[in-house]
Design a protein that fits this description.
By secondary structure, the chain is an alpha+beta fold. The protein is built from 16 helices and 20 strands. The strands form six sheets. A seven-stranded mixed sheet has the order 1-10-9-8-6-2-3, with helices on both faces. It has a four-stranded antiparallel sheet with strand order 11-13-15-14. The protein has a three-stranded antiparallel sheet with strand order 18-17-19, with helices on one face. Helix 2 crosses helix 12, helix 6 runs parallel beside helix 7 and helix 8 runs parallel beside helix 9. The relative contact order is 0.11. The mean pLDDT is 94. The structure holds pyridoxal-5'-phosphate (PLP). The site of pyridoxal-5'-phosphate has 11 residues, from helix 6.
Length: 492
């Protein structure tokens, strides 16, 4: 173990919790279950006494209060060092909170922002909270797979030219499907114009821990990075981090205030401890675990490709528009050669061997692997179930599922997402909605790029496109009426 790894081998916050619970303190504070004694028996049995004993409130002396740097501050500093950030914040409301905080911090710099169109819904929520006016930049669409990849640098350059007063640019990398953006070039383009690049790296918290993986966003020059530590690195669900780069164009105090504003005053100590521990595990054992996981997934990919009708997404995607690199921790399976869609295969896999996938669409199934899975038996189990599923449904004689037509252009942004969200609203029949301003998002899957966002004027073409996508078996997310009989619009 090298000097820096030795330094990273401790878990100051987790240790402080254990120390507190271990000395039988008088718990004259919340939570009311008092270390488990007052908890429901079923919960106590399910979680175990130790978990409840460690569930303590914020501002506990010796944990996150007391002589500086206290254990909580030391844990966040170790996390910043581990990812190469100037500062890291532990988040207890997921990467969603990271996006909300990033938006509020960015709004200090101006009223406009360039945003990748297929950003996570929490980024759109951040626009609602902050009141910023977005210029949307379209990700590259893969016409064969029917999925969206990352943002092309030229697209960002054009969007920033169209938005001379932009406070910053906000992109997503990696995608759900493993495509990684050319963050270094994108950051260069943003910085040429003097604006920060925010990267929603919810799916890439592990990238910092292996040289065979694509470069992570902070190393590539991003100013602020949202990291969903629970997704692949292995902290508890809902825990995440926000990383500020050294020399960032974002202001540290503004980010700090935004994190506080979007956070409970009672952050879960269990979630925070899991971040401290996941950081230690990633630094000290992450590289070895990642090597094993990547090797096991490479074998699983090779086996899946031998099943007639199936293919996998892998580094062969690199070089396609919007794919600068590929993150192999996602096992994405191309099912276009099978006589059933991803929507039909996913429940079949569940029936066959209780296989529960992260995501599935018309053409692609996505299985997620953690960076440090002790036993990788799931990969073989998935391969066997896929083989049985294909044997059952057969292969597609034509070879390819019908592809979806290009979506019509987005409607004019008639008001900010915030104004549309807060303004007076009504629900109207979809056939009367053209020309009205949407108060909700409508995103057809596949490929999941929003066709309509709050504040945009609905067009006849877009409504017809969504209807036809629904008729072909697609779905629409964000809509209050998922069958699109009605749409929520702004009263003008
Ligand atoms: C790109 C992206 N950003 C943010 C999030 C939100 O993450 P969390 O569930 O940790 O709040 C997700 C969730 O899937 C995501 O895919």
């Amino acid at each position: 173990m090298g000097a820096s790894e030795e330094h990273q081998a401790g878990t100051p916050y987790l240790d402080a919790l254990r120390e507190y619970a271990g000395r039988d303190p008088a718990r004259l504070h919340v939570p009311g279950h008092k270390g488990g004694q007052g908890a429901d028996e079923g919960l106590l049995e399910a979680l175990g006494e130790r978990a409840l004993a460690l569930d303590i409130p914020a501002l506990t002396y010796g944990v996150d209060l007391g002589p500086e740097p206290n254990p909580f501050a030391r844990a966040q500093t170790l996390a910043a060092e581990a990812w190469g950030a100037a500062r890291a914040w532990f988040l207890v409301n997921g990467a969603s909170q990271g996006n909300l905080a990033a938006g509020l911090a960015l709004a200090h710099r101006g009223e406009q922002v360039v945003v990748q169109r297929n950003a996570h819904s929490s980024t759109i929520d951040a626009l609602v909270l902050s009141g910023m006016r977005p210029t949307f930049a379209a990700p590259e669409l893969d016409p064969e797979l029917g999925i969206a990849h990352c943002l092309n640098p030229e697209t960002l350059r054009r969007a920033l030219e169209l938005t001379p007063d932009a406070a910053g640019a906000w992109i997503v990398s990696p995608t759900y499907f493993g495509a990684v953006a050319d963050v270094r070039t994108l950051a260069g383009i943003a910085h040429e114009r003097g604006v920060p690049l925010i990267v929603d790296e919810a799916w890439g918290a592990h990238l910092a821990f292996h040289e065979r993986l694509p470069e992570h966003a902070l190393a590539a020059g991003a100013d602020l990075v949202i990291s969903s530590t629970h997704k692949i690195v292995g902290s508890l669900t809902q825990s995440a981090m926000l990383h500020l780069a050294a020399g960032s164009l974002m202001n540290e105090q503004e980010v700090d205030r935004a994190v506080t504003l979007t956070e409970s005053t009672s952050p879960s100590s269990l979630l925070l401890a899991s971040l401290d521990a996941a950081r230690r595990a990633a630094v000290t054992g992450g590289r070895a675990h990642l090597s094993r996981t990547m090797d096991a997934l490479a074998r699983a990919r090779a086996e899946i490709r031998t099943i007639e009708g199936l293919d996998v997404l892998d580094e062969r995607l690199v070089g396609r528009p919007g794919v600068f690199a590929y993150d192999p921790l996602r096992l994405a399976i191309d099912v276009r050669g099978v006589a059933a869609s991803g929507y039909e295969l996913a429940p079949l896999l569940r029936e066959l061997d209780d296989i529960n996938l992260e995501l599935y669409g018309q053409n692609v199934l996505v299985a997620v692997f953690g960076m440090a899975e002790r036993s990788l038996t799931e990969a073989g189990r998935l391969v066997r179930a896929l083989s049985a599923a294909v044997a059952k449904v057969g292969v597609e004689p034509a070879g390819l599922h019908t592809s979806f037509a290009d979506a019509p252009p987005w409607g004019e942004l008639a008001m900010t997402p915030r104004a549309a969200y807060l303004g007076p609203q009504e629900v109207v029949p979809a056939e009367h909605a053209a020309g009205r301003i949407a108060a909700e998002s409508l995103a057809t899957y596949p490929p999941g790029i929003p066709n309509v966002l709050p504040g945009e004027r609905l067009t006849t073409e877009t409504l017809a496109y969504i209807r036809s996508a629904l008729e072909q078996g697609g779905s629409v997310r964000g809509a209050s009426d998922r069958l699109l009989h009605t749409v929520r619009v702004v009263v003008e």
